[in-house]
Queue: 4 jobs
Job 1
Amino acid sequence: MNCIHSDCGEERTVLLADMRGEVEPCYEPVCGMYQYHYMVSSGFGTVYKEDGSTYILLASAWQCKRCMLVMVTEGDIIWGEMTTIGKYATYHGYVDPINTNGCIIWGADHYGYTSNNYLSGYRFVIPTYY
């Protein structure tokens, strides 16, 4: 059975019928058993490629609170909505939370670009402090 996941970044469950006619929820896991990375805003980030060139300079840093994946995006959340993401890079080598000062990634696992304000498999949030 093939699972389908949303391309809009929203949490959705697709229902598929099995051979007995029963319906069960199905999604493609991307973060352990979850269907998206829960990316929390964590200050500023800079990304350098392995050749020393700057890919992103002082932009938004994010970290998945579940698997510690780190991402730097040109876009940010403004007034509760994500702006155009633009260039982004991910790195899965952090074992501890990054602090509000952000991070520096030297040689990312993945580089990308999107003109959308969402990425499939990611949810971007701002932390709330009480």
Job 2
Amino acid sequence: MRKFFAPIIAMIVAASNALAETPDTSSQSILLECTSHNENSGRLRSPLYQNIVACYNSESSTVDISYQGEAEGEVYIFKNEILIGYDSNINTSIPIPPNPGTYSIIIIGSNWEAHGQFQLKFYH
């Protein structure tokens, strides 16, 4: 019986490894650092966990942001300190020009902020 199951298990493991090694080149995850505001002093406090996911989608040249929560906020995207994208909702997809460079994302909620950066590189 072991001789029968061993090849099947080996094929399943090999197939799962092959699937795990196939990268999705159409999207790039963007790391966001979230901090909360202290209501009394207005200063930023310790890091805060927010369930926000941000990705750059190269096929559509958009930054896709999704949030699983009830907080409201605004999304700003900058390139070289110039505002190139804005939305008044956190769950959004913002088109950006497909130009190489470093982009910054700022998401501002009522008592928290999230900051992140990503870089676009194009190879000829």
Job 3
Amino acid sequence: MRILNNNPPFSLVLAALLLMGPVIIKAQKSNKLKHDHFAEINAKDLRVDMDAFYIHFSGIVEEAADSIATLTHNDTVAANALFWKMNAIPAAQQAIFSANPIVALGDATVLCIQMDHFFKDGAGKEIFKDEQNIAIRASKKLRKDIIAISGQMIPEQKAQSLGDAIRFFALNNPINSLYFNRKNVKPAMAKLIEEEKFKLKNVAQNLDQNVQDLNNRIVVFSNLMPKQIRWQSEYMIYKNTPAQLQNIAFDSLIFQFDSLMLFTNSIPELIESERQEIIKTIALERELILASVQNEHKTAWENVDAQTKNAFHKISSQRDSAFLLADDLILKSTENAKETSKELIDFAFYRALIILALLFIGALILIWFYKR
């Protein structure tokens, strides 16, 4: 108190700081909120992560389902394990290959949460009997991995609200069977993206990148298609064939599908060759278009040059005609002037002769009178 009383300026500064403190803090918060108004996400990096997660998801589910089918002695449990990977992997494919990578991330996260809840606490908590923990561990790992991707790609200030909204949707729209019938999450994700003001950057892609993305999708589909056919056949055998005949049926199917896989493995090479042909065709068409444009440009300039020469020729002709006409007029005027001058001179000469004749006659008359 003594210091404040003896130093009035110091007390005034301290009081001002105390009063302005909340205002400064509020301004800082306002600037931070303004800076965080839009949450930018790198579309290219997120798409790469989601494509890699699909491969990871399908591998984890397939491995877990095969482990259950191998360990169990219950045909129903083995059939359920087969049915799980038959439906879970296409569901992940549909979710992850969405056009918008943020929607793909949200949909895949919802799927992992739904599957984890289904095997742990939901309608499928006893569907694999003694091997239930294998499915629970696989689902828990996938849920953890997709949340890790969200943590890396989603800005920290948006991660909590986005995670809560996705978790709320997943738990309120659970999976009720191994058919993986799911409510469409895209409208909810679109609304959430608008509310949270997510913004994608690095969205534009060139032709090669689009072709490469299409190539990746075709490879994924071509790799999954023979597996799905085999799994469907195995599932039908489980359901309709007695246990003692199942091994014979499986051996025949394995031989047939090995041949199909050899053909499938050659599909990426065929796609690459088609891609190269497309690029060559586009390059050739581009060269033809450029050549056509150059020809059109050259023809247009030749037409302009010809029209310009014709115009100058016409102007020159009209100018020469005008000069000739002017020369004719000048000649005619000169000739007329000469004729007129000649007539005037002749008239003056004749008048002069008449006058001289009259003077001569007058002189003679005067002489005559004078002599007389």
Job 4
Amino acid sequence: MDNEKIETLNKGFLEHAQALFGPIHSGWKFVGVEFGAGPHLVYLPESKEVLISLSDRARTDDVQLWFQLSHEMLKFSIIKTI
């Protein structure tokens, strides 16, 4: 899946999570997705940004992409404070 489609999924998952759980109040900003050692959230404390890291398998397996991305986006959307 190309980066544009992944960004569209991100936006949709984040909007849906906020519709269910309310707006994000943590002060952390979501900045994108990377592939490699995931799935997990990568915190960049100097800039208060969060990056979603997905496994390499999610790059070529749409089921893994949807599952991992939705799971990590949900975790990000319900963070209150860190």
